[in-house]
Amino acid sequence: MSTGSRSVKELLPLTPAVFHILLALADGDRHGYSIMQEAEFRTQGKIRLGPGTLYGSIRRMLADGLIEETDERPDAALDDERRRYYHLTNFGRRVAAAEAERLQSLVVEARAKKLLHT
Amino acid sequence: MATRLKNATFADALYRSLLLVYPAEFRREYGREMTLAFRDRYHHQMTKRGLAAALGFWLNAVADVIVTAPGEHMQVLWRDCLYALRIMWQWPTFSIVAVTALALGIGANSAIFSVVNATLLKPLPYKEPQRLIWISGSNLPGGIKDESASGPDFLDWRSRNHSLEDLTCFAGWQPVLTNQGEPARIPGGAVSAGFFHVLGVPATLGRTFALEDDQPGKSQVVVLSYGTWQRWFGGDRQALGKSITLNGSPYTIIGVMPAQFLFPSATPSEIWTVYDSATLAKRGRRGDHLGVIGRLKNGINLPLAHAELNAIAAALEKEYPETNTNWRINTKPLLERAVGAVKPAIFVLLVSVVFLLLIACANVANLLLARSTSRQKEVALRIALGADRRRLIRQLLTESVLLALAGGTLGLILAYVGVKGLVAICPADVPRIRDVGIDRTVLGFNFLVSFFTGIIFGLVPALQSSTPDISKALTARGTSQGRRGGRMRNALTVAELALAVALLIGAGLLVKSYLKLASVDPGFSSKNLLTFRLSLPATKYSDGMSVVTFYEALLERLQALPGVRAAGAASDPPFLSDNYWSFTVQGRPPLPPGTNQDAQASIVTPDYFRTMGIPLRRGRMFSNADNRSSAAVALISETMARRHWHGEDPIGHRLAFDVSEKGPNWREIVGIVADTRSLDLGAEAYAQLYVPYDQLPQRGMTLLLRTEGDPMTALPDVRATVYSLDKEQPLHSVRPMREVLANSIAQQRLSTLLLSIFASSALALAAIGVYGVMAYSVSQRTHEMGVRIAMGAQPFDVLKIVVGQGMLLALIGIAIGSGLGLVLTRLMANLLFGTEPHDPAVFLSIIALLSAVAFLACYVPSRRAMLADPVVALRCE
């Protein structure tokens, strides 16, 4: 299954930035700065997406069909009309899952080689 | 609070200016969002950490832009390239014509640049080569501009100067090798002990000469070239310390030079021995043949060294007035000495390929302009859909740069093939020619030239195409480009014609000059004349008698060979070597010191003149009776008679060129022979002096054989005859005289050939250019022509209109080109022989040729206009 001409497999492995954006959007639609905050918060400040990195990735992800712009606004109190919101597509969700599985199998491998403590 | 707000606004503005690094498209799409995200984060950080965090924050922001902007540009470039490729594919004929024209232009530039790179730009392969200088003598009152140094002068320059680190000398040395298979003459050099040290090139194996080698009576040593070491010893390191027999004496091999070592002389050199200072000191101060190279001390420049050496020359003049009066010193960078002679020719070729490329650019720009008419709708549509002008120009320039890069790639292949061919046909004495090839520098040059060529020819069409009249373009049925495009195309046509005319005039002058040079009568017949040299070793032929006996017997046997009409020998025959002797005439007052009165001298056998076909003008030739026991005699050339006897009859006069204990050795002039040219067909004949061989025997002689047919077929018999007399005598420099003469003008032939090729390409491109513009113009005016014919115009009237319009452009181009030719050909003056840079015949021929070609290029499309069917033309309305 693929969107456009690209399949899930073709897109793997994802860059860390793309994976973090997918993870951020997995909970719901967000605008750019919100994605940056979420990634930073989730990684305890280890990942800080700059605007260039974020919007460069967003442009590619839109082209690949991983995300889409949405007109729906979340809770009106939190809404900020000036901003564009992004939504994770089904295809994007599958790609994120496939990447997570790929990482998981790597973790399993690392455990088997006793690089990680259970 | 107010300050913080101010800060934030300033930070916003600063960040927005950072965003200018991104492609406009990306900025338009995401710039606002990025600024918002930036502002939020900035605000957050400032609130949380205060101004102290500002530096780190900004560093991160700048790094983010630097890391991500190139990727966005690449993305746009990639899309533009794909689009450009699609366009190229859609217009295959256009693409093929444009790429071919550009390949010609860029290929020619890359090929000639590879020559420039190897000869003029690459430093010589020595240590700090910019400090190496060439030192020679000059005697301007005596008319001598550049003369080799002598041993004693060299030693004085070396010991007295303070501006050079060291100074070394060298000369040709061609020993006969006898203990390595067949006897062979090895081209080599004799050098002073510091030679390799001055050049700064150590041996790759063993050592080079050291000061202790500079001792008389020391065992003789040699250093081998890498190639010789490989050939003789298969690269065996045990070769060091081995003894070889050269000229009948043992020499010990002490070292091998690296493979890339370049001996600083035009002729190949494979083995080197050392001069000891005592031997150098004993040589005469005049008439020696040493090349001298010096290494400037750190911080000393050439003018300083030049001044000091000339002060030494002035001191030597006082000390040795007999020999050193009026002698001064020339100095020049070693690189200049190595390649100075070919610089003008290379410069002319470089200018010509630049012209060729400009013509190709004008041609392709014209094609692009014509095509842009057909693309007006596409461009208008894109503008209507919101594409901005800069974006369109960038897209159109990407197309032209891509075309140029394709042309450049094809051009590189052409250059590679061309350079291979060039090196193969290039005369061996063109300096550093074996270094010419396509290397990284040439590749870089090719890329840069391709890139900028794409910008140059693409810019004007891109600027024009990006501003179409949208409503007209989208609604008009037909397409036309209007007056502005037409004017630009006309200007480009005029420009390419002008450049082609200038280039053709240059080529025409060189062709005329070359034909004149090639038809110069050398003063003898070169047809079916075989030449080779023998050098008898002093160890085996120690006295004059044995030498004479050998050559007499040899000539007798050679003359008896089937197919040999005549055989003679000379010490210094024309075009093979030259030797100058100073002389005095009996009964005239002695010449003041420093005055130069010399003649090219050759010691010849009686049959030499018959063999060469040099006619006697007055008096008598030499005969067998002119020998050691008879009166000393000489023959002189017509030029010598004219120059030194000024209308007086020289026959019966006596001259001397050497002095014995009894005084000058006078020789009676018994005849006057015709002049011959000596080393340069283009130079006037010099005064020439001949002495009979029996009266002054020489071990080294050049044998000349006039044969019935192809002289090389006689070679096996000739070699067998030489071996039948002495099986240890190798024949060397075996060549037919015709080849010797051809080689003497090979450089001129090559530059003429190259310039002719470039000029022919230019002519073809210019013809295509004119044809293209006229054909396009006719296609645009079909309707007008149809109306004219419908109104009663005759086909001839239509022809007049079209041809008239084209020829007007052509004539303007030709006029400008002729003017350009008048200015530029002045730079070629010293490349021309017997041809004025403003030669009217050449100018008129080129003007006529270009006019004819332009007429044809206009006539063919005008035929189509004449046949325009008024009904069809009007139906378009």
Structure description:
The complex is a heterodimer of chains A (about 120) and B (about 900). Chain A is mostly helical and about 120 residues long. In chain A, about 55% of the residues lie in helices and about 10% in strands. Chain A has five helices and five strands; from the N terminus they run ββααβααββα. Chain A has helices at about 10, 15-25, 30-40, 50-65, 90-110, and strands spanning about 1-5, 5, 30, 65-70, 85-90. In chain A, the strands form two sheets. A three-stranded antiparallel beta sheet of chain A has the order 3-5-4. In chain A, strand 1 and strand 2 form a beta hairpin. In chain A, helix 2 crosses helix 3 and helix 2 crosses helix 5. In chain A, about 30% of the residues are buried. The model of chain A has no long low-confidence stretch (mean pLDDT about 85). Chain B is of the alpha+beta class and about 900 residues long. Chain B is about 55% helix and about 15% strand. Chain B is built from 27 helices and 27 strands. In chain B, strands 1, 2, 3, 6, 7, 8, 9, 10, 11, 12 and 13 form an eleven-stranded mixed beta sheet that branches. In chain B, strands 16, 17, 18, 19, 20, 21, 24 and 25 form an eight-stranded mixed beta sheet that branches. The longest helix of chain B has about 35 residues, at about 55-90. Chain B is globular, with a radius of gyration of 37 Å. At the A-B interface, helix 3 and helix 4 of A face helix 2 and helix 3 of B.
